[in-house]
Design brief:
By secondary structure, the chain is α/β, with parallel strands linked by helices. Strand 7, helix 6 and strand 8 form a beta-alpha-beta unit. The radius of gyration is 26 Å and the shape is globular. The termini are far apart. It binds adenosine-5'-diphosphate (ADP), magnesium ion (MG) and zinc ion. Zinc ion (ZN) binds next to loops.
């Protein structure tokens, strides 16, 4: 009988050690080593090759291979994020916080794939088969040919899933969730790094060996303390994250890794009674619907991958009490916010050093794109000066340290979308080619100062306050 071995496995990076240590020597995380009892060592087995058809060298001039075949999931937005659909034999990971809608999404995918492209095995260690059937009924997948072609298997044993899949040969196997799965030979609890890794390795063998696409669900917690997606990321072909605002209806899908496509595309869904629904007009999904616009609201024309997305930035500035003024950002990179605040103060005469600052994006979106800078700056200045920005104006531009505006990529595409959605004026960085966009007046500005002048509407109450203190001195 093999003697059980005890290893200390880092919950952050998966490295294992013979002895406990306070800090992981591999990734330098603290207090992440957890004792795991192993009788079979996963590292003794080499993962199946990711390249089907052997490893012989080929000249660059060799004829091109056939394009990767894919099948659609039935959800257009997901297909776009994946790069066109699911690749047979691939291993996917769908991550997201509990309750965001991962099981819902995958049950809908199961319904979309089943029948049209082959059967689906939906294995769940989270719920009973009855609970899954209840959800299927709510999603309108309770009966019909697609429902016949989805088999639900309530188990947490990877061996049982692999066996069922080899027998039924479905097109897709869903494993909900990888944290509930165990392999018999390991003694560690479900969710430990050892179990998660070994389970994923065996499911990868199933995927590559049988040409069955395997989709793993992975829970991500805020502190990332459980063994999960982070240790799996290097193993899988694609990592798709499902996110969205808690309590809100918008759901966002993004690939953070994709061997078969780009990681730029964003999928947009609405969560409802009948599950995740594609949004008819994603370009406008992140524009808050409201009558009349208050100071602090500015629309940015952003670009997510190939998709132009108009998003409302909302800012509130208020005099701070004692202590360090608050800086709260949601959906906006906090270091970017800090830079914008500094430039506003030093280069544009809008000092916010003694004010609390709150800034967020409508609809729970987060945007890491520099083209958002100008809208954030204008929203802050608009709130500070209590002057509105015309709601039919969109803005785009990266802000430099000198207060200059820098050009952004894809300006034409952004402005065409803005024009389509009824915006009438666009404040954009000067320099470079002036874009052609029908039906929208383009206002090129060179600096944040000029942008403030162009964007903030005069108000009776505050018209007396000049934008730039220097102008007052000179004038
Ligand atoms: N009856 C319902 N009507 C509308 N939405 C529901 C209903 N039941 C569940 N939901 C939505 O589904 C979400 C749970 O989805 P689920 O797929 O179980 O999430 P996950 O698998 O990521 O934990 C809930 O947060 C809620 O938004
Ligand atoms: Mg679930
Ligand atoms: Zn580590």
């Amino acid at each position: 009988m093999a003697r059980a071995q005890s290893r200390f496995v880092c919950q952050a990076c998966g490295a294992d050690f013979l002895r406990w240590e306070g800090q992981c020597r591999s990734c330098a995380a603290w207090n992440t080593l957890v004792e795991t009892v192993v009788t079979v060592r996963s590292r003794d087995r080499r993962p199946a090759t990711a390249v089907p058809g052997g490893v012989a060298p080929v000249p660059l001039s060799a004829p091109a291979e056939a394009p990767i075949s894919r099948f659609p999931t039935g959800l257009r937005e997901l297909d776009q994020v994946l790069g066109g659909g699911i690749v047979p034999g691939s291993l996917l990971l769908i991550g997201g916080e509990p309750g965001v809608g991962k099981s819902t999404l995958l049950l809908q995918v199961a319904g979309g794939v089943a029948g049209a492209h082959g059967g689906v095995l939906y294995a769940t260690g989270e719920e009973s088969a009855g609970q899954v059937r209840l959800r299927a009924a709510r999603l309108g997948l309770g009966a019909g040919p697609a429902a016949d072609a989805v088999a639900v298997l309530a188990t947490s044993e990877v061996g049982a899933i692999v066996e069922a899949a080899r027998a039924a040969r479905p097109a897709v196997v869903v494993v909900d969730s990888i944290q509930t799965m165990t392999v018999d030979e390991l003694d560690g609890p479900a969710g430990s790094v050892g179990q998660v890794r070994e389970s994923a390795l065996r499911l990868m063998e199933l995927a590559k060996g049988e040409g069955i696409a395997v989709v793993l669900v992975g829970h991500v917690t805020k502190d990332g303390s459980i063994a999960g997606p982070r240790t799996l990321e290097h193993l899988v072909d694609a990592v798709i994250e499902l996110g969205g605002e808690r309590g809100g209806v918008m759901r966002l899908l993004r690939a953070t890794k994709n061997r078969f496509g780009s990681t730029d595309e964003l999928g947009v869904f609405e969560m409802g009674e009948a599950g995740l629904r594609e949004v008819a007009d994603p370009g406008r999904a992140f524009l808050a619907e409201h009558e009349g616009v208050a100071p602090g609201s500015v629309v940015a024309a952003t670009l997510e991958g190939t998709r132009p997305l108009l998003v409302e930035v909302q800012a509130l500035v208020a005099p701070a009490g004692y202590g360090t003024p608050a800086r709260r950002a949601s959906g906006i990179d906090p270091t970017r916010l800090a830079l914008i605040l500094a430039v506003l103060g030093r280069r544009a005469g809008v000092g916010l050093g003694s004010h609390d600052v709150y800034a967020n994006l409508a609809g729970g979106l987060s945007v890491a794109e520099p083209g958002l800078d100008l809208a954030v700056a204008l929203a802050l200045a608009s709130s500070m000066r209590d002057r509105r920005v015309d709601p039919r104006t969109v803005t785009v531009g990266e802000i430099g340290l000198l207060g200059e505006l820098r050009p952004v990529s894809g300006l034409d595409r952004r402005l065409r979308e803005a024009a389509r959605l009824g915006f009438e004026r666009a404040i954009v960085p000067a320099g470079g080619r002036t874009p052609a966009a029908d039906g929208i007046r383009v206002v090129p500005v060179g600096s944040l100062r000029d942008a403030l002048r162009a964007a903030l509407l005069p108000s009776d109450e505050f018209a007396a306050i000049p934008i730039e203190p220097e102008t007052r001195v000179l004038g």
